[in-house]
Amino acid sequence: MLHLVSGQALFSSCSPKVCVVGSGPGGFYTAQHLIKARPDVELDIYERLPVPFGLVRFGVAPDHPEVKNVINTFTQTAKHSRCNFYGNVNVGRDVTINELKEAYHAVVLSYGAEGNRTMGVPGEDLAGVYAAKDFVGWYNGLPNCRELNPDLSCETAVILGQGNVALDVARILLAPISMLKSTDITQPALEALAQSQVRRVLIVGRRGPLQIACTIKEIREMVNLPGTKPEMLPADFEGISEVLKDVPRPRKRLTELMLKTALETPGEKELERRKSASRSWGFRFFRSPVEVLAEPRTNKTSAIRLAVNRLEGSGADAQAVLTGEVEDVTCGLVISSIGYRSLLIDPGLPFDSRKAIIPNSMGRIQHTPGVYCSGWVKTGPTGVIATTMNNSFDTARSMMEDMDSGALDVSAVKSGSQSITALLRGRGVKPVTFADWEKIDSVETKKGEAEGKPREKLLSVEEMLQVAQT
Amino acid sequence: MAASAAVRTSVGLTLKLSRIIPDCSSCPLYGSKSCVRSATNSQRRSSQDTFRIIYRHLQTSIGLYHSDDGSSNTEDPDDVVNVVYVDRTGQRIPVQAKVGDNVMYLAHKHGIDLEGACEASLACSTCHVYVSDAHFDKLPEPDEREDDMLDMAAMLQENSRLGCQIILTRELDGMELTLPKVTRNFYVDGHVPKPH
Known about the structure:
The complex is a heterodimer. By secondary structure, chain A is α/β, with parallel strands linked by helices.
């Protein structure tokens, strides 16, 4: 039907219209693949914050700027003629999934994992206990983490979890300020770390060295971190070297590096370096948190009680089994880094609350035709950018298969962003365009230049909107 | 930044008109701090971005990229290196390149879907390729940092390398670079057919 009165005949066309919810790697890589593969697809990316890029901006550590180069690829996609970015739009609150389904041929959910797995132990709510996600959000300028004010006045910090996020937190806690001050770490975090009295960080895992979840690059960075020395327990590594010959290369190289660090007598130069190191870090294995203990007068964290485990089975499937023993470790800072969790943003969607993902088959959401998912909300919160890239390309391929087979009907005329932006306007929501983001980008870059940093991030949504929309 | 904006516009126009990539050495900003492609400038809004926009729309046909200025690919036959990319569908794409070309950027130039998320800074594994056996040993040993990144790549094989670390030499003439089939279509036992 032609709607000549409203002029929609000019804009509505038979091109497939897709909307993507979330502008991190999951969203952008899905968009990139679709735009490239089909010359007729028109794509709108909705993002809750005024700024794009998700964990690339808020998760990747400040001292890993090369990992953030992927922003250039995403920028190209956003500026493509068939792609539009709409920031400051909260899907679930400002607009519903059903309204998006009405306006688009397909909806892709790639809103990631903004929640936390909790330890579920007494004392988790004490002052001095933080989720790694919030700690990382704090030093990376995530608006709702800016009031975190972590207490860094203690000597020992214990991190639960041994994935790359745990290693990032350890490294940021112990890195020399001279290294951090030329990164895009936020100014408040930099100042807090400059005053920090944390000198020792223990990175604790339930299982053993062969089950550690981090990657070799991050371990190497700790081993080479200036001003620090490793503090490992050789007993943790008993029997490890014997099983290495049958282990795949990545696990083998990583374990060999740990063995070398834990067991080898260092050469003269390294011995000297360690003698003059004022900070230390180490892995602790076979320990699970049982309780965070408080100093009775101040009610601040004073120690963490850890259960001692033993392993049953081997390799990736090894299970940690309680032995009944416990051990208390004195510390004033506890950071739990045991996994992010996706949340359900619309009650109309299916959700697997055990795995905290949207149930799907190759990106096609179960029982919900026309709605797909990619990134961590599809597979769970693990993996690096390359992993999410492959996962997103896979979802895009499912969508293309469905378009070709007719399983996804793209013949009807859909109104796309025209109707959604009208709806948002009616609700008092003003989306931030990509050009608006570039104003924010420019302000942050200029502020950074004055301080010898790649950027100085704006820390509140209000500030971002002020720059974007005036 | 007017200078870099001017370069972007002029490079964009040149690319659009003649569909070539100009040789960096012919650009007045080459080697200077204003060069948006320099390794130290990680905030690039670069001519590279324009390359990719253009090249994503190109057909992959050889001969499309003869440069009219200065260093043409066919000018010095000693410099020519012929390689073959095998893309993720198994399609073979022969490419006439030259000594010094970077395997990842060369793939981009020819519209081959090899990603390069970190832009050749050894911070990702998205440019992972398999190198033909006959040429694998001719490559210099990988840097420890490359090995660390390769460890994170899906479907790692003995002949895996990161494309961004392979620079063409005459010895590598005839090399085949196969993109891993990282899709649900890969063989259940992990077998990947070796290129012929």
